[in-house]
C-alpha cells in the first residue's frame, strides 16, 4: 500500500558530539539517512523531515540522499509538514532517533491506519514512550494525513511526535508487536533502538549490519567472504571509508593477479585473486550498511565479472603458451 513518511528530526542528542539525534553517526552516515532509506525501501512515495533548524550537517545528509536519487522535503513546523501530504494519504510517523530493522518498516507498511508498533513494557524498553500498562511505543506509527493535519492544527506548544502518537492511541488503533506471537520480526534482538548518543547510534548500526543480507549472494561469498567482511566493514565505517576504496582495490588486485598469471607468477596471481574476493565483499557490506546496495548492481557485477574473465583467460593463455613451449 502506498504511503508517505514523516520523520521527526528536532530533538537534541545527549552526548554533545552533535546537535541533533538525526545527525548521530551511523554506518559512516547519519541516523537520518538510515531512516529515510528504510522508509523508501519499505515503499514510501515521499519523505518529509520535520525540523526546527537546519544545520550544515543536515543539509549535507540530504544532499547525499539526493545524489542517490532520494528526495526528502524539509518542513520547519508541524503545519508545514501536514501541508506536504495529500488528504487521502497514509503517513508513517518515524520517531526522532529511531533505528529499526527493515522487517519493522515492511510490516508497518503492510498495515492499515491507525497502527502502532509496540514493545512490551519491561525494564529494558524503558527508553520507549509508554502507551498503556502493558505496551510502549516502538517508534513507528501509521496514521493518515487528515489525522496529522488535525493534530498540527490543535498542537500549540505541544510536541507533534508525542501528541500525534497519543491521538492515535485514543482513536483505537491496532497494535503490532515487534516480537512474540504475530510480531513484526522473528529475531527481535536490538530490532528497535532509540539512539540519543553517538555510542548508541554506532552500536545500533553495527547490530543492523548483521541483519543486512543480499539474497543473491553466492555460496563462496556467503560462507567464505562474508564472515570476514562482517568483522572488517564496521571498522572501516567508523573511519568513514567509502565502499569505492575496497571495491577499487578488489578490481586492482584482480587485474594484478591477471598480470601475474601472464608473466608466469602463478602463486602471486592466485594470492591477489583470493584477496580481491574479500575486498569486494567488504565493499558490498559497506553499501548494505548504508542501504545503498551498489554491490548488487549490474554495473558492479559486470565489472567484477570482467576482471574474473580477464584473469581466467590470462591464466589459460599462459598455460597454453607454456604447454606449447614444452612441446618444442
Number of helices: 11
What's the main sheet like?
A: 7 strands, mixed
Shape designation: elongated
Q: Structurally, how many domains make up the residues? A: 2
CATH topology heading of the largest domain: Spore Coat Polysaccharide Biosynthesis Protein SpsA, Chain A
CATH homologous superfamily (4th level) name of the largest domain? Spore Coat Polysaccharide Biosynthesis Protein SpsA, Chain A
Distance between the termini: 71 Å
Secondary structural class: alpha/beta
How many strand elements?
A: 11
Report a brief summary of the structure.
By secondary structure, the chain is an alpha/beta fold. The chain has helices spanning about 30-40, 55-65, 80-85, 100-110, 145-155, 160-170, 200-210, 220-240, 245-260, 265-290, 300-325; strands spanning about 5-10, 25, 30, 45-50, 70-75, 90-95, 100, 115-120, 135-145, 175, 190-195.
Amino acid at each position: 500500500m502506498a504511503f508517505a513518511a514523516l520523520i521527526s528530526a528536532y530533538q537534541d542528542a545527549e552526548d554533545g558530539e552533535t546537535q541533533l539525534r538525526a545527525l548521530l553517526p551511523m554506518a559512516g552516515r547519519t541516523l537520518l539517512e538510515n531512516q529515510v532509506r528504510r522508509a523508501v525501501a519499505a515503499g514510501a512515495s515521499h519523505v518529509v523531515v520535520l525540523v526546527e533548524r537546519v544545520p550544515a550537517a543536515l543539509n549535507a545528509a540530504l544532499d547525499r540522499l539526493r545524489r542517490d536519487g532520494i528526495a526528502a522535503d524539509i518542513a520547519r513546523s508541524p503545519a508545514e509538514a501536514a501541508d506536504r501530504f495529500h488528504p487521502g494519504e497514509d503517513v508513517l510517523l518515524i520517531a526522532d532517533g529511531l533505528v529499526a530493522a527493515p522487517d519493522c518498516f515492511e510490516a508497518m507498511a503492510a498495515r492499515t491506519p491507525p497502527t502502532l508498533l509496540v514493545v512490551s513494557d519491561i525494564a529494558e524498553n524503558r527508553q520507549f514512550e509508554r502507551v498503556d500498562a502493558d505496551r510502549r511505543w516502538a517508534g513507528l506509527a501509521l496514521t493518515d494525513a487528515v489525522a496529522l493535519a488535525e493534530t498540527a492544527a490543535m498542537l500549540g506548544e505541544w510536541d507533534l511526535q508525542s501528541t500525534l502518537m497519543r491521538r492515535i492511541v485514543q482513536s483505537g488503533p491496532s497494535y503490532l508487536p515487534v516480537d512474540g506471537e504475530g510480531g513484526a520480526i522473528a529475531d527481535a534482538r536490538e530490532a528497535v533502538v532509540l539512539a540519543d548518543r553517538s555510542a548508541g547510534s554506532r552500536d545500533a548500526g553495527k547490530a543492523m549490519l548483521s541483519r543486512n543480507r543480499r539474497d543473491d549472494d553466492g555460496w563462496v561469498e556467503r560462507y567464505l567472504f562474508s564472515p570476514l567482511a562482517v568483522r572488517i566493514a564496521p571498522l572501516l565505517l567508523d573511519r568513514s571509508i567509502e565502499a569505492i576504496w575496497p571495491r577499487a582495490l578488489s578490481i586492482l588486485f584482480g587485474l594484478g593477479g591477471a598480470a601475474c598469471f601472464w608473466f608466469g607468477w602463478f602463486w602471486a596471481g592466485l594470492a591477489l585473486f583470493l584477496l580481491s574476493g574479500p575486498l569486494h565483499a567488504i565493499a558490498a557490506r559497506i553499501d548494505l550498511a548504508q542501504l545503498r546496495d551498489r554491490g548488487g548492481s549490474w554495473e558492479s557485477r559486470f565489472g567484477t565479472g570482467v576482471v574474473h574473465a580477464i584473469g581466467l583467460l590470462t591464466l589459460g593463455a599462459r598455460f597454453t603458451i607454456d604447454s606449447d613451449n614444452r612441446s618444442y
